[in-house]
Amino acid sequence: MAEAHQAVAFQFTVTPDGIDLHLCHEALRQVYLSGLHSWKKRFIRFKNGVMTGVYPGSPGGFMVVVVSYMSYNKFRQLDPSLGLITKLSQHVPVSRYMSTDSQRIVGGVLVGTGLWVTIIMIMRNVLKSLLSWHGWMHARHGSVPWTTRGWMLLVKVFSGRKPMLYSFQNSLPRLPVPSVRDTCSRYLESVRPLMEDEQYERMKGLAEDFEKNLGPRLQWYLKLKSWWASNYVSDWWEEYIYLRGRGPIMVNSNYYAMDFLYVFPTSVQAARAGNAIHAIMLYRRKLDRAQIKPLMLLHTIPMCSAQYERMFNTTRVPGVETDTLQHMNESKHIVVYHKGRFYKVWMFYDGRLLLPREIEQQMERILADESEPQPGEEKLAALTAGDRTPWAKARELHFSRGKNKQALDAIEKAAFFVTLDDTEQRFDEANPVKSLDSYAKSLLHGKCYDRWFDKSFNLIIFKNGTMGLNAEHSWADAPIIGHLWEQVLCMDPVRLGYTEDGHCCGQLHPTLPGPQRLQWEISTECQEVIENSLTLAQNLADDVDSHIVPFNDFGKGLIKKCRTSPDAFIQIALQLAHYRDKGKFCLTYEASMTRLFREGRTETVRSCTMETCAFVRAMIRDETEAAEKHQNMYRLAMTGGGIDRHLFCLYVVSNVPFKCRVLSDPWRLSTSQTPLQQVELFDLVRHPEYVSTGGGFGPVADDGYGVSYIIVGENLINFHISSKHSSPETDSHRFGANIRQSMLDILDLFQLEKKAIK
What class of enzyme is it (predicted)? Predict the structure, then answer.
């Protein structure tokens, strides 16, 4: 059996002479190695905490400052303690126990330490002031003014050397609170193209009344919070937008990431799982040790790293009214699902991380297990796919004691969740549309019971070796999981590799204990709850219309020759495509990050502007003006001048008609760019086939579209489109065709203009 264990810690028998205890030396050895591993990990975390706490200072800098200070005072024959020891001896008999030389040494160390801390605080606050300036964002592409160059030089000087992942957290500025007047003005500007004159005048009156009367009083609360909290938005955003949602998180909140588009490293399912799991665990080790380099814009400007903290060992726990995020400091196992059965797999043995071939060995044991699922076990995970309140009540009633509690704890405290899927998914050149659409839907929702949607992320390995991720959204945003995924895709086929027959490199472990099958006692009543959740989830999944468009007619290389931003170009193309698709404009959501600020997450760029609408209607001129307008709005969102997060927080502190009207507008076009953050990991010039397909999400509105896109290399843009079959207004394949045509038509405008100039 796959769950059998070979090592038993101790055995005992009762004899006439008493209890005869037999200890297993191998088991004791494993206990010793496990404890040693834990202590090493604690020490590393402590050391990293110290290094981060004193950054941009360092222990080496401390020695330089203290020794230099003491040497200077010795040469000048001055009291290094500046009279501190003398004053201290008046109250404590220090001089009785310390010689004069000892007092000088102690005094020098104390004053030198104070000087070192002062230097650190000055450098940190200067860096925070420098990072509060965002003029660099207004420089044109390809040209950097001297003022920006000088500013970047100062940032580098005060940033210290060899920063760790969390080194800049104390130096990042806080997210500013925009003025009520600016927010109301920008809001009215954003909705003007979507409203008739009468409707707009009514909304304008509500905004003016709010700006004059209640707005300033509510603003005072937000100002107070911005002084007290690290970020005045993020905790409320996590709580009210994600954790308090009572509907299914599958499709509505969770999102997915895909494998390579054209590369298939191996068709052996267990082998692909072995390399991928090992690569993920190596990433976690680097994360625990804070050895991942912080993301730096222009290789100079640090971004907040707070979201990385809950990537592993994290589960969203359902509640009746609101969910909570449960994060464990350490977890040494994963949980694997295959054909209706759950397995606990330890990731460490002999005091070390399992190697890829050893993990493959464990996966092979699971795949070879022919035992049947226990009653209610096969579709148990459907609870995480349905409404949150029934899941919370079932968890409290049926999973709070006995075997069920132990098994559920194993899942919720696992590093992450793995599904060995029994279906095959892959890009098929003979049938590209159907194969990619099926692949996307499988990653987004699967069978609705073969992913644990509450885990921070699920690794999904299909039967033919293709893989992907499904991630829960509340703990972090997509670029965080994207950073992990890029590392895995880079390490899997290149650094770890496979043998000629498709297996992981390395040797089998002769005495490795097998996976442990989780045991359940699921009652008939609980099974009825599972079936109800599954029915709801399947209806939701069946309604999703997914479509992927690998757009390879041109990419950012040609767009940049048009002297415009690739993102602005794509957003305008999406507006043109939507107008052609529905014959009207709509409120458009584009996600922008605010990680230039401490604990920043996202802000909304309202991409449907007056300029964009004018361009779409004309399709002849004003494209440059529309693109520049979009870029300005993107800059405002990144630098704390966005609209929606401020309005959201104002709504939290008070409920008024203006804000209720604002927040009730549906986002019928929700868009997001998946950035390729670690370009240096992929050689897309010599190996263009090693490209990520990107990822996607479900539609936000019942009659709207969800569009995610990734700009890969110079010549490829992948679009992930979603909508609902139940809406007569939407069709993902039709919208995909409109996007393709709109991209080509906008490019033609630039080419015609160039011909006219000549």
Answer: transferase
Pairing of strands 457-461, 417-420: parallel
What is the rounded distance in angstroms from the CA atom of residue 325 to the CA atom of residue 343? 23
Q: What is the set of active-site residues? A: 473
Q: What are 591's two structure tokens?
A: 């996600």
> How do residues 717-743 score in pLDDT, each as one tens digit?
999 999 999 999 999 999 999 999 999
Contacting residues for 659 by C-beta, under 8 A, at least 6 apart:
210, 647, 650, 651
Q: What angle do CA 704, 719, 252 make, to 5 degrees?
A: 45
Structure tokens at 535: 């029915």
What is the tens place of the pLDDT at every residue in 100-110? 666 666 766 77
Rounded Cα distance, 492 and 502, in Å: 12
Contacts of 510 (CB under 8 A, 6+ apart): none
CA distance from start to end of the chain: 77
Summarize pLDDT for 629-668 with one digit per residue, the tens. 777 877 888 887 888 888 888 878 776 665 566 666 788 9
pTM of the model: 0.88
What pLDDT is recorded for position 265? 94
How far apart (Å, rounded) are the C-alpha atoms in residues 59 and 538? 57
CB atoms within 10 A of CB 709: 25
Q: Which helix (H) or strand (E) holds 348?
A: strand 348-349
Q: Which domains does the chain have, with CATH numbers?
A: 56-134+143-162 (no CATH), 248-542 (3.30.559.70), 546-587+666-758 (3.30.559.10)
680-701 pLDDT tens trace: 787 777 777 787 789 999 999 9
**Alpha helix locations (H) across 234-340?**
234-236, 269-288
